[in-house]
Fold each of these.
Amino acid sequence: MEERQTFGVDVAGIHRELPLFEIKPGLRIAILNILGDVEFVQAAAKALAARLEAVEYDLLISAETKSIPLVYQLAVDSQKPYVILRKNYKPYMGKALQHETLSITTGQTQTLYLDEKDLDLIRGKKVVIVDDVISTGSTLQAIRLIVQKAGAQTVAEAAVFTEGERAKWAEIISLGHLPVFSD
């Protein structure tokens, strides 16, 4: 088996080697997968919570799946509630708000859903959007639009890493930046 190239990152005193994956011919990205990495999630959430101390907010919001442990730990550390946007609609979600987005990692269109039960929780609130990595901004934009449709206000956006064009993400509260690798 061929050894995969990696890109080393350090976050809040924790080092990880992120595997590089080709997302289209001649273009690779470093993949951060925090699922199951308790040490990394706790350190990253603590560092993001410290950076969010100056922000006045009521609620955290994220999209499933990989950022769920991060937003959960951030909710524990900040003592704020959180909401997860789902990628699949279930009948029990009632009149869910929805918006389509294009995922860079799958290359597929996906729809994000805000469960009807969360509408009252989010309405009128100041919200921080949380993600593991912000790459193209398509998921971020979909979350922004759902927050707006729900009658809430986005007051900050936070991620472990931004990726790609650094200047594009100047307003994002992040712990680092990942380059894009072209052959």
Amino acid sequence: MLLTILIPVLSLLLPLIWGVIIFNRLASVRQHLLESWSDVDVELKRRYDLIPNLVATVKGYAAHERETLERVIELRNQARENVGRPDRQSGDEQAMVVGVDRLLAVAEAYPELKADAGFRELQSELANTEDRIAAGRRFYNANVREMNQLCTTIPSNIVAGFCGFETRGFFEPDPAERAPVTTDFGD
């Protein structure tokens, strides 16, 4: 008699427990995603704050490079305003990095600028910030990979679909933007 009651109860209770465990895992990974993106976002904002100072310093030495300076500020503003999904934001971020790289390449043509202590300090801060962004990107992308695995593999995809969990896009540059930067100084 006990067995006839226990079997139906367990057959109902075990799937429910399984569903709760999977849901909690998905919710935990989603929180890790939010936290890791927040860390990246803080460093992106730090980079946004450094770029105008870098441009102003270069402008003092290389005023005739106005087009490059304006383009970097334009790219910085575009990236700062794009606060959408991280996978969509990565294209603007990469375009801005390419612009900053071009700005730094311009600086190479000005020995007095390269010797300026303020410029070297800004360049160092920018390099440190880029390192922190890269580390944050790796952490975020690892969490994206975990969420995507949970949302696409059986049996967790059943709970993910039922509860509205979705796959996420990675925060990475577009393949076309991975090409090396070329700069022509008209020598």
Amino acid sequence: MTELAAVKSAARKAAFARRKIAHDGHFGGAGYLSEVLAGYRGVSLAGYMAMRTEIDPLAAMEEAAAHGPVCVPVIMGKGQPLRFRNWEPDCEMIDGEFGARVPAMGDWITPEILIVPLVAFSRAGGRLGYGGGFYDRTLEGLRAQRGTMAIGFAYAAQEDADLPLEATDQPLDLIVTEYGVIEPKR
């Protein structure tokens, strides 16, 4: 394991512990996320189905679905970018890779805004994910085609001022927590 990989692994472990405490305390909520998304009605949006101790964007996704297309990520395979399948409240869901819930059927959509789950974030817009590179690879490809906004959604406790980052890590355009919206200063 490289030195950077070891530092990232330690940062993930600490962030998972902070996230669990925040999640167990029920400090989450999608209110600020709904407020941000209200300014982008009708724009194609990718959310995610919360797993384990992730903050849950479902309420904001349901609200956004009344105004435009919403989709969720589908893992196509190791080393590949994510694809996004149309999602609607109460659509049939099945287990996808890593236990992530995905729509059983539906059209593929290319989102313009992605609500991005994460393990840790920095106020500069850095994001530490699970280590598979799925969102970094996907955002890089989408941003090469057109402007694509990445909104990190997390508990405030997941902030880490000393986040280990690599050149391939895609920055977040906004971070939304249960306490408000953070605009990264780069």
